[in-house]
Amino acid sequence: MNKIKDIFKKSLTTKDNNTLEESSRRDFLKNSATLSVSAIAATSILGPVKASADEKQIVNEVEWGTKLGDKTTKYRYGIPSPYEHNNVRRNDPLLSSGDEYATVTMCPIHESEGIITPNGLFFTRNHGGTAHIDPNEFRLMIHGKVKKEIVLTLDELKKYPCETRTYFIECPANGSTDWRAPQYNNLQFLKGMMSCASWTGVMLKTVLEDLGLEDDAVWMLAEGSDNAGNPRTIPVEKALDDAMLVWGQNGEALRPEQGYPLRLLVPGWEGNLNTKWLKRLEFSDKPWHSKEETSKYTMLQKSGKAIRYFWINEVNSVITKPCPEKPWANIKIGDLVEIEGIAWSGQGTIKHVDITFDGGDNWVEASLKGLVLPKAWTRFSYMYRWEGKPLLLSSRATDDLNNTQPTIDQETSKQGVESVYHRNGNVTWEVTTKGEVNNVHIRKHKA
Ligand SMILES: Nc1nc2c(c(=O)[nH]1)N[C@H]1C(S)=C(S)[C@@H](COP(=O)(O)O)O[C@H]1N2
Ligand SMILES: [Mo]
User: Fold this and answer.
1) Is the CB of 89 within 6 Å of ligand 1?
2) CA within 20 to 30 Å of 397's CA: 152, 229, 277, 303, which one?
């Protein structure tokens, strides 16, 4: 036993005598590749695994193996296993207007895997409930300073060549409950006002080049046909850059909650601009100053003044494993565990993510895993051996324009604590000696 422990210790000791907890997953794989065959079992991430010869699920017939299952044709549209009943959107009463129409349901990002949110779990923010539109009755009007004003059916719009692209949508109010002090000990409620999907539709640029914009068309108004309408002014520059009119979401039609049959997608910009149940696009030489960009969706500063037209969701990240809902309660001291999270930037592509274990004094670089796409969720990962010490665990993302997430101190010294929108200061998890995880704020200075 001691011999195994020795091999174990040796194999995990790097040049400068730091143990594996300080090294990345890639280093771990490199180290383990040099081990002798007998040591592999001892260094398995699983640790010592109990022999399974007496497991009744293996030895005996199981119920589901002795009879026919459901008819293969039972579900014309598949549904999740009933055992996954906890993986659901949840309503945040703090962010509702006292009813279940003008409110938000948060995405269970603590349960999410990879970078795509399944359609049934996509966060939903409505100002007047979910509209249900018959696609045959759908019309899109494009008017104002456009050479060829037009009213299009969905089929006509679908004649344009389509593109499929992966982008996140984030309400700028994501994390808003935490400006003054930690409000929720819960990742879903803290950062679940975002999701990421693969969208199919036409580049708005393609449509506008086809119809022809007037030279002085510099602003676009996008309005929905739901009772809220959600009118927002968007610079034509963005409309001609990467904005899309989308009808597809993860390989099927948009869900009603996401704006069926057509929504505007303004990649990386605040969720509110992504008009659902789209009815019209109007072009003008002046902005509209709609309710949604004057009374709401402005950035209150420390000075008491507010910034209008703050569109971009800045670089951000959060650790999803561990998190308050998925603590390290079952992890034993000495276990090697994966720290995982999501990073995103409305300005570009995630370049790197750093992790701190001590509240920001020291940082190590995590590895990015899977697809790394612009304005999309990006997964990061770090293999860590937890020795039972309490931690102040946090991530800090940097994008390819070298924007880096601020600390909470940096953010609130500029912004104050009365803001609602565009919070991207570091989220910190306190990991206790018992492996519990709490949402805390690291403040070295007073706001
Ligand atoms: N027509 C319309 N578009 C809308 C809204 C709305 O209420 N009506 N809500 C906006 C807000 S505030 C956000 S954050 C995003 C949310 O998109 P989702 O519900 O698909 O997650 O849609 C935006 N588009
Ligand atoms: Mo929003």
Assistant:
1) no
2) 303
